Amino acid sequence: MGDLRVDGFINGKQVISKSLSGKGVDTKFILLPDDHELNADGADSTRVVMRVTDEFGATRTYANDPIVFTLEGPGRLIGENPFSLVGGTGAVWLRAGEEPGTLRLTAKHPRLGTQVVELTVTSAPKESI
Q: Which of 12, 21, 70, 99 could bridge 54 with an S-S bond, Cβ 3.0-4.6 Å?
């Protein structure tokens, strides 16, 4: 089965092109944090999105694999561990602790390998009254 490419045109000008895989194979495991820096105030948090895609970056909607996390550094993981993807995607949260440093989240997919993201946890600004 071949790949599908769809091109969108407005007034004769191409405005989008989308390719979909005909292979039906999970190809990439992606880990995407919303932020790369948090304040060390014990409350600052960010979402980390996981996604399984085909070779063109389209989400594989039938991927429901369990993702296993390891977190190192001054913070904590908010979410289930392991986390089962739903519709090829999912998200967990990272909350900074009260000490500066580096948060390193490792996410392991059972077939597509391991992805790592690092976030910098900086000293929280002094409160002013």
A: 21
- Beta bridge mates, 110: none
| Domain range for 71 | 26-123
Whether 2 is covered by a domain: the verdict is: no
Stated pTM of the model: 0.83
What percentage of the chain's residues is helix, strand, coil (to nearest 5)?
0, 60, 40
Residue 118's CATH number: 2.60.40.10
Q: For residue 102, which amino acid is it?
A: T
* 8-state DSSP, 55: T
**Average pLDDT in the chain:** 92
User: 127 pLDDT band (50/70/90 cuts)?
Assistant: low
